[in-house]
Design a protein that fits this description.
Largest interface: A-B, 33 and 37 residues
Distance between the termini of chain A: 9 Å
CATH class of chain A: Alpha Beta
Helix content of chain B: 25-40%
Shape of chain B: globular
Radius of gyration of chain A: 14 Å
Low-confidence stretches of chain B: none
Number of helices of chain B: 8
Radius of gyration of chain B: 15 Å
Oligomer: heterodimer
CATH class of chain B: Alpha Beta
Mean pLDDT of chain A: 96
CATH architecture of chain B: 3-Layer(aba) Sandwich
CATH topology of chain A: Rossmann fold
Number of helices of chain A: 6
Number of strands of chain B: 8
Strand content of chain B: 15-25%
CATH architecture of chain A: 3-Layer(aba) Sandwich
CATH superfamily of chain B: Thiamin diphosphate (ThDP)-binding fold, Pyr/PP domains
Number of domains of chain A: 1
Helix content of chain A: 40-55%
CATH topology of chain B: Rossmann fold
Largest sheet of chain B: 6 strands, parallel
Strand order of the largest sheet of chain A: 2-1-3-4-6-5
Shape of chain A: globular
């Protein structure tokens, strides 16, 4: 399991310098670490977080947005009618609730369809593993920057230390 | 036939309000919400410091907030509408909690979704200025005419925010075409204009 401070440091090392989002238990350790570093701007909805990140990007920052995969549904229109249309990169850290069907009922559908949903809207993604973490983080940052669109790093339970590891 | 609002005959149009505001602005970044507001601003004065939002309804204030947080020494303005504010109402809370001093939120309140054919919003019953005040905006004003609008906006430009200026406007929409720039060009132009 990757420690939250190591993970956050790796993101900062690839240049990410604006963090916002909406919490999830899987992301809890990362958010706690970001708050210790005074680097986290809490949002109340995922579309607001993506909007804020877009503004920060245009003001010269390299943003990342954290959210549970249910939040993908909430911010889908912002991703497609703001980021994709205006060619604005956004590094997204999305927790995979409902992965493998082992989660609360409200996560079942999104847990199952998330990869197809991202394929459909043509947003590139990759699941983080402990072994390939450094390369995964570099990939997601470079993909967003080079293609000028959002790119998603998917976090399954237990890869980075969460709120209740 | 829809009932005519009592103040309808005396209110200024959104385009008149926009023209008055733009005369008072120089190089401040301005994020403009989707629909007629972006088209009207683009027609009245097309400046590189304008970010015309064409989709993502409800997110204009969030985008402006991101700019404001990343550039704390630059005053950032957003031109919003009542329908947009209602859709992204949580952002009033986020602004109220974060209290960025350099954030000015202008809301053109015509009580309708003008771009889609004047379907009523609910801002005639929900005073958005009072919502903003309760959420924690520091300066909040509601104006009904051009003189008050110019006076209050000048005042807000001098004060520390976050500030919200709610302008009651009539339903008139200027004959303005769509924003002619391609969205990626809007991004690049805006980024370059607000650099430094």
């Amino acid at each position: 399991m990757i420690d939250s401070d190591v993970f956050v440091q790796a993101l900062q090392d690839v240049g990410v310098n604006f963090f916002t989002g909406v919490p999830d238990s899987i992301l809890g350790g990362i958010i706690a670490e970001l708050m210790i570093r005074g680097a986290y701007v809490p949002a109340v909805r995922e579309d607001e977080a993506v909007g804020m990140a877009a503004g920060a990007y245009m003001a010269g920052r390299a943003p990342a947005v954290l959210m549970q995969n249910s939040g993908l549904g909430t911010c889908l229109n912002t991703l497609i009618s703001l980021n994709l249309i205006y060619r604005q990169p956004c590094l997204m850290l999305v927790s995979w609730r409902g992965h493998g069907g082992h989660d609360a009922p409200e996560h079942q559908v999104m847990g199952e369809i998330m990869p197809q949903l991202l394929d459909t809207v043509r947003i590139p993604y990759r699941a983080l593993t402990e072994k390939t973490a450094v390369e995964d983080i570099r990939w997601v940052a470079e993909t967003a920057r080079k293609r000028q669109i959002p790119a998603v790093l998917i976090l399954t339970k237990g890869v980075v230390k969460g709120w209740q590891p | 036939m829809a009932a005519v609002r009592p103040e309808e005959g005396t209110l200024i149009s959104r385009a008149q309000a926009i023209a008055t505001l733009l005369e008072l602005l120089t190089d401040q970044p301005v994020v403009i919400c989707n629909g007629f507001p972006s088209r009207e601003v683009h027609k009245i004065a097309d400046r590189p410091t304008h970010f015309y939002m064409i989709g993502s309804m409800g997110n204009a204030a969030a985008i402006a907030l991101g700019v404001a947080l990343a550039k704390p020494n630059k005053q950032v303005v957003t031109f919003d509408g009542d329908g947009n504010v209602l859709m992204g109402m949580g952002t009033l809370a986020t602004v109220g909690a974060l209290r960025p001093k350099n954030f000015i939120h202008v809301v053109f309140d015509n009580e309708v979704y003008g771009t889609t054919g004047n379907q009523p919003t609910i801002s005639n019953m929900v005073p958005l200025d009072k919502v903003a005040k309760s959420a924690g905006y520091v300066n909040v004003e509601r104006v009904l005419d051009r003189d008050d609008l110019a006076y209050e906006f000048k005042d807000m430009l001098k004060k520390e925010g976050p500030s919200l200026l709610l302008i009651k406007v009539n339903e008139f929409a200027e004959d303005a075409g769509r924003v002619e720039h391609d969205p990626p060009d809007i991004t690049r132009r805006f980024m370059k204009a607000i650099e430094g």
